[in-house]
From TrEMBL:
Keywords of the record: Hydrolase, Membrane, Plasmid, Protease, Transmembrane, Transmembrane helix
Domain of life: Bacteria
Transmembrane segments: 36-60
Pfam families (UniProt xref): gag-asp_proteas (PF13975)
SUPFAM superfamilies per record: Acid proteases
Keyword Transmembrane: yes
This protein's name: Aspartyl protease-like protein
PROSITE patterns for this protein: ASP_PROTEASE
Key word Amino-acid biosynthesis present: no
UniProt-listed GO biological process terms: proteolysis
GO molecular function terms listed in the Swiss-Prot or TrEMBL record: aspartic-type endopeptidase activity
InterPro entries, alphabetized: Aspartic_peptidase_AS, Clan_AA_Asp_peptidase_C, Peptidase_aspartic_dom_sf, Retropepsin-like_bacterial
Amino acid sequence: MGLYDRDYMREKAQKLARARELLERSYEKPKRRIRIGAGLVGAGWLVILGLLALLFQYVLDMWNNPNQNPALTATAEGMQEVVLKRNRQGHYVVTGRINHQEVVFMLDTGATIVVVPETLAKDLGLVRGTPHTSKTASGVITGYRTMLDSVDIGGIVLRNIRASINPFAPDPQVLLGMSALSRLEFAQQGDILMLRKSYAE
């Protein structure tokens, strides 16, 4: 084998090595693209699932509390009026405020006074007053008297409301009892409850 043949073979081997390298690179690029594409598809599915979870939570919240943003209107008789819809469980639940802090009320005409769960009472800065006993669906419990400076239901504001702090209430909802509701007029039509209060009060 001559010098010419060796150079020719070396050149052929180099060309073959370059061709092999180019071929391997062409296979690597699609793999990377597939990995990146699969990552984007996975991220897209995570975003879609996250949005569906948020939508589902919103629907559940609306089923439980269809009155998250109640509107205050004025009647022809010069009354403030808030219209509430009954939830799927048959209760009137509404977002409102105690002492300017947002809470969720469940209207309860069977409750003598407003009942605030103790964990929420701490967040609201309510002071425990004298102890008293109350009959509840769970039996007789000891609660603590307190006063609410203001109760706001969709813009209808009631002041100096007697309430009770319940240390055993697991639910963060406030039972809006008759110590507040007795200051309002209310009328029911089907699944709608209208709360009214005179502007003068």
